[in-house]
Specification:
The complex is a heterodimer of chains A (about 325) and B (about 160). Helix content of chain A is about 40%, strand content about 20%. Chain A is α+β, with helices and mostly antiparallel strands and about 325 residues long. Chain A is elongated. Chain B is built from five helices and six strands. Chain B has a five-stranded mixed β-sheet, covered by helices on one side. The chains are: A alpha+beta (about 325), B alpha+beta (about 160). Chain A: One of its GO terms (molecular function) is nucleic acid binding.
Chain lengths: ~325, ~160
């Protein structure tokens, strides 16, 4: 518990979105801070259903803000952080990285060679098995153009070397003869090893400038142990669950308004009606200006006032 | 004062609707200096709202007694509004801050029932009752729709 209290969740800000890439962090914020957020990871070329999405988890701005305010996480501006760390790299890390790339290329080459040898071996076995069974008459039917092909030549798997040496030898031989295959690095792990704490203050972005208007209501609900998910499916800002959404149905659909924001009565009636139809209550809340000072935070409301609307059944 | 006329007629529409369509009794208009508009309160013919936690207490009490507990109606607040209006959270807060949870006359009604025992389920009709108002939304064709509006987090009923 002590360890989890000190845990600092790295929230990566990429293109204005707040992402968490570490599965342990995702479990931690869900278990200890009541934040489920939304899994967003998929293959761009083949997007899957929401149910099968994977890491990273995307936090709403207010969720990221809450973690920062609780001291449970920090926001890293990934673009600045990458540039900063790349530009301050010394020669030894550079050569280590180049070595790493070279090793990856060798590995790729070896796998390629092994695969090729395997296919070749399989093909030759097949030919050997076929040859005694089928005499010369059969050979003409299976091979439509046998005139130019010699007995040991392989029309499909023709290689520059007629007799390939064992794979262990090829890798050392090929290195001198052929260039290694190119490898496109897909992660920055080798060059920028994982960091578990904020490396430098420069990499920590401030969220204060972008505190969303939903934040007071979100904080109010979170501090009472409610979990929230995006509420679009019920036409609100949040769906509010009394516990983990895996275990509970939502109790409320919530909207956040300004203290003096005028809300059309029709909106309240329709949202209340919709909420009742799906066995929920329509909750709306607002922060009273200067509220936290006034109420002193005695009830933890922080100046947030909420109201619930339900159909009266008459 | 056109707006006063408007409020008066609005109250009248809701008053009549409650009295003649929904059979409410003991209807009263309640004007208060710190209220933006007059409220109504009255007694519905049958109980309109049971808080989910109260329902649990009632079921427990019924199990102990081995018989059903008849649920008497409670006096309720009513706030008449027109559908074309726009209300801010600040206005709702002002209305709630100006009222007691139990409308005038409601407490006497509860007391007259006789206090045999301090039972859990009974507290919901007295000290544990939260503030709630029946939001009576009037449309131009004099349709009135009724919605509960609660002060604070009140979990939905299991309906």
């Amino acid at each position: 518990m002590a360890a989890s209290a000190e845990r600092q969740v790295r929230i990566s800000r990429v293109a204005g979105r707040y992402l968490v890439f570490d599965i342990d962090d995702v479990l931690y914020i869900r278990r200890h801070h009541g934040i489920c957020a939304v899994l967003t990871g998929t293959m761009p070329q083949n997007p899957t259903q929401n149910l099968f999405l994977s890491l990273p988890v995307e936090l709403q701005a207010e969720e990221a803000q809450l973690l920062v305010d609780k001291g449970a996480g920090y926001i890293a501006d990934e673009l600045n952080d990458h540039l900063l760390r790349l530009s301050t790299m010394n020669d030894s890390t550079r050569s280590a990285y180049l070595q790493h790339i070279k090793q990856q290329r060798r590995n790729a080459q070896r796998v390629f060679e092994e695969e090729k040898a395997k296919v070749q071996a399989r093909h030759q076995n097949k030919r050997k098995a076929n040859r005694p069974a089928s005499p010369s008459s059969a050979a003409t039917t299976t091979e439509p153009a046998p005139a130019t092909v010699t007995e040991d030549g392989d029309s499909l798997f023709d290689t520059p070397k007629p007799t390939p040496p064992p794979p262990s030898l090829t890798s050392t031989l090929k290195e001198k003869e052929l260039p290694l295959p190119g490898v496109t690095p897909t992660t920055s792990y080798p060059i920028l090893p994982a960091i578990t704490s904020p490396a430098s203050p420069a990499s920590i972005a401030s969220t204060n400038a972008t505190t969303p208007s939903f934040y007071p209501l979100y904080k109010y609900l979170n501090s009472r142990g409610y979990y929230t998910t995006p509420g679009l499916r019920f036409g609100g800002d949040y769906s509010v669950y009394p516990g983990d959404p895996f275990r509970y149905h939502a109790h409320y659909l919530a909207n956040s308004y300004g203290w003096d924001e005028e809300v059309a009565m029709l909106d309240l009636v329709t949202s209340g009606r919709l909420g009742t139809a799906v066995k929920k209550s329509f909750l709306f809340g607002a922060e009273k200006p200067g509220g936290p000072q006034q109420s002193g935070g005695g009830d933890g409301a922080g100046g947030v006032r909420v109201f619930c609307i339900e159909w009266a059944g008459m | 004062m056109a707006s006063q006329d408007h409020l008066a007629s609005l109250c009248k529409v809701v008053f009549n609707n409650l009295a003649y369509q929904h059979d409410w009794t003991k209807l009263q208009q309640h004007a208060q200096a710190d209220q933006p508009r007059p409220l109504l309160y009255g007694l519905p013919p049958k109980r309109l709202y049971v808080q989910p936690d109260e329902q649990i207490d009632i079921i427990k009490a019924e199990k102990d007694r081995g018989e059903r507990i008849p649920q008497e109606p409670e006096v309720e607040w009513v706030l008449p509004v027109h559908l074309s209006e726009k209300w801010s959270p600040a206005q709702f807060a002002a209305v709630f801050d100006g009222i007691d949870a139990i409308p005038p006359g409601g407490a006497e009604q509860e007391a007259s029932e006789g206090d045999e025992r301090e039972e859990q389920w009974k507290l919901w009709r007295g000290p544990k009752r939260g503030k709630r108002i029946l939001l009576a939304t009037v449309q131009d064709d004099s349709t009135v729709t009724y919605y509960w509006i609660f002060d604070g987090l009140v979990k939905p009923r299991q309906n």
